Queue: 4 jobs
Job 1
Amino acid sequence: MTFFKTPPLMGHKESFLPLIANQAQRNQVLTGPAILVAAAVYQVVKKQMNGKCGSDFHSHLWKFFSKAEARDKMGRCVQYACRGLQGVIAHMAKDHWLGQWKTVIVEVQQTLAWARRTNRWGKELPHIPVLGEAIMSGDYLEAAQRTILITFLVQDHIYFLLKMGILKFEQYTAIEFHRRNLRFITVSHVFNFALSVRAIQRIRAKQEKGDPSVTGSAQALEKADADIKDNQIMMFRYVLTFVQMIHVSGVKQLDDWYVGLFGMISSAIDASKQW
């Protein structure tokens, strides 16, 4: 009996230097190293031309993808792109070349959905103190939004446990419980929209009164205008996500192609905040 189950260096298909059966396998084995070599050559050329490897954009991109929230929103963008492609395929002829990719597209969408759901554990924690502050200050609109959002996130974890078979509910399958839970996040988007409207109204009311916090300087004016614009963008985003959720939850049957597009746009808006 040898120490290794399979040869680590060479002589086996899984070794560092595998036995090559044909050209297709050679290409498959060399794909990773070829990308590495191309990246290394690019950096060497860049060093010779500009005096340094990397770039400010590269550093910024790395910082962006280092954020869990940024990765989540980019994953969501691809997830909804897959949903949109499924909608496009549904409108095409059965023998269209894109149809053969439907199974792969569905698999990518579902895998990303579960990866994102796994990473949502604990995401309700920062909202709990805000809920307490809203209740104590009498801000019932904020309190209602946080209550619904926290409920959705907690029930999302329950859906995870149902899907894994750790929990079993007599009256609900995992998907039935999930679709019911999506109605909570749908309502949450309505409250988010209302909060954005209120934020804009408060800024404009301060501007009318000449409040120094929004009119006292050029910087204050610029910040107030930026806050109004940001809330307007988020209102647009909440309209898109509301439409998405009424479709995904099964409340109203819409078309995957434009629901997927809406999901990509709303995800891009969220990702831009992490950029």
Job 2
Amino acid sequence: MHPPPAGRLLLAFSGGPDSVGLAAGLRESDPLLAYVDHRLRGRRASRDERACVRAVAGRLGLDLVRVRVSLPDGSEAAARAERYRALAALGFKYGCCGIATAHTADDRAETLLFNLLRGSGLRGLAAPRPCTRIGRVLRLRPALDERRAGLRSLAEAYGFVEDSTNRSTAYSRSRVRHLLLPALERLLGEDPVPLLCSLADAADRLRTSLERRAAALAPDAGRREFLREPNATFAYLVEALRPPGPPLTARAYDSLRAFLEAGRTGRAHRTPGGEKWRLSKRGALRVTGPSG
């Protein structure tokens, strides 16, 4: 596992085999377990799950905090976004050094395939990384080099919650896990996960190189420098100049390039998230955050 940083971690804890296995592997560093209750499976099932999560945390000998969240809809994306907002708030409240999630090498391979099928660029192939920062929050994936089966074996001594939805193929990501990866293994005659993780490593090295180049260019870059960049590297220069936050969509990058090509110096261009891009008469760029 990747070694945790100094300080206490907040560990996203669903009670499933991955999060229990990670908690078992990190017991010596005394992480604070955080259970996010979505109550998506009905009142009785949620009550039973909460009781099981408390019992598992007790057997691990680790502190557990719970937060309940309400979702605007039942989508995976809404649940994920709300979960990370709740975890960030808990991490700040308890003074934790970062938020750890139990993503594994198997998750990494699934993410790469999922992003590839959506037409992702280099960022999607390189994701997820062992350590990222979203605003003030440090997000860690200590088990990203571990296999899911390994975490499950660590969890067996403590028990865990079996989530029936993980076996469902109703969601796109589940279909990648249960249908596409097994089909690739049959086709290749070997486990595709290490091969896909090697591709992700290569993509991440290239991404890191581009990000460093963009960071060196960004302080002095103006309209001409941005428009000189091909589409493949334009996004990295944009991200080097923006405030910290999730990357823009392909459509937002195209819209920003169109704004720079037009060369308008009056009205500011707004990107999703509320940032304002302004262009001076000499072609200099100034970017301010949502409140700027």
Job 3
Amino acid sequence: MIDIMAVLKNKMQVQSHIMTTAKYDFDVYEKRIIYRLVELAQCEIQGLKFRDDCRKVEHDLWGYTEVTLPISSLLSGEDDKNHLRVKKALKRLQKKTFEYEDDKTWECISIIALPKIEKWGSSVTFIIDPKIWNACLDFSKGYRKYELKAAMSFKSEYSMRFYELMSGQNSPITYGIENLKEMFGIADKYSDKTTNFIKYVIEPAKKELDEKSPYSFDYKVNKTGRKFTSITFHPVYQPEHHDPDLERKELQKQISLSWDLTRETLDYLKHGFGFDTKEIKQNIDLFKKAQHEIENFLLFMSKVKPRANRANNPKGYLINAIKKELNK
């Protein structure tokens, strides 16, 4: 079996804040499937070719997406030949739902449907609900960047979650302990003592991040009266674990366009719709006007995205949608 981690080209994965903070309880193999979905979704909208013929994304008329992946892409390397665990993860994901709630809506959506592996085959196929696919790309509430190779290497699902939360974070963030348990899908566990939650969730995740992650954390448990109620996490950047080639590529992408457009707008145009620097410059006047005149331009683009994804030319679809909105 090929060591997939050895040949994997590292990249900065951009993940929606919706997916980063949603409530779910996935194990390591389930999380790897989700990471691959985010990767495929972003490759598709950026117009990138998939790395091999085993990766395919096909959309039907109702917006449902059929995804094909090599089983090896869900394993951690040549020492991990446990195809049975991949099958079990697919079965669990078929039964699980993706739950998201904010101050306006609550949604509960099935993660995947109809997983299938041909006998003696090397790939798996399953169906994705359009809302799950769009959640991979909805940056309207913010986003996190993380190194895909690092995320795929973790052995603990809690390490994966904390890596997503800490990656690129510069200032401390505080979570209520009960809210954190709900986010991780373990609200019914460790209810007896906060110390057990810290011992079996926080500390093991911190240890693994300290050992291999570009981002880790220190933490402080906070009290309200005599009861522990929240935890403040202080992000810790560990440059010795950061991919220097990847960092150089990211720096090269920083361009003078930031004088005209916000970083969030630039990132959404690049990662959400696949515009390159030249294409943004060609349409800079339109984007500047849209950023100035369209209320919440990021939200506008996130609403256009599902329709643009189904168009033959998503970039052209967005440009036309902006022009129509400005003409109103």
Job 4
Amino acid sequence: MLFVLCVSAEAQQPKKVSRIGFFSYGSVEIEQSSLVAFQQGLRELGYLEGQNIVIEQRYAVGRSERLPELLAELMALKVDLLVVAGDPAVHAAKKTTNTIPIVMVASPDPVGTGLIASLAHPGGNVTGLSDFHGGVITKRLELLKDVVPSASRVAVLLNPVNPSNPLQLKDIQAVAPAFRVTLLPLEIKGPDDIDHTFTRIGKERPGALLVIGDRLFATHQKRIFEFVVKSRLPAIYSQSGYVDAGGLMSYGTSFADQYRRAATYVDKILKGARPADLPVEQPKKFEFVVNLKAAKQIGLTIPPNVLARADRVVR
């Protein structure tokens, strides 16, 4: 009888339900496919929402002033772990807590911006995945020049609130002379700066546009697309989500793959691993994606030798 009571009591013990904060500098719309990939990765590792895991979502929609408020909400929910997208959000999370584990996703230069001590030994409470590899940002300028050889002036959109953006601009500036290109850096700190910047581009009339990766730009990608079509301005972006949504071309890693991989970090940490001891993963594959419909909209012909190098073509 005592044995039966013990078994019954044990069966009634609630299983541990881990609470994950999914925190993005972008919007719910642009992160939807990434969230699905993350959830898929969790399912493959045996985590089912509502059973042994709960995901609390918060999105800043490209507004850096909202980051502290949203983080406070997640702290109040007592999340066990944060999965964070967008460098401004990662830095805000690190400033908010040094105890709750943080899994960053697609951080371009986590060492250079001071998020971690090194890729092999992150230290502290931040680990995860970087989407940066030497030469990626400069490769985008090279591809842009291959598509538009006549472009002698290239506008560069960057968000100075994102610590990685100025570093990437320096990389581009270092190689611009080799491509015989003069850069026109344009800072956009929030949604309210976008129209003013478009007006300046219209006055300066550069030959092409390079958009440095930032979730502010991804959140407002439709506004960017409308402008570049109206201006007949060739543009290159940081990842394929832009191209699938209507952008001209991109060169970068797969965000879906990064988010699936983020689930493995969550699994290890929930099983007791320390973020400080988990090496930050770098991508091994980058893809060049071209959208021929977008090219047609601005009257641009992609050179055959460039098209042949594309990993994927949207027709």
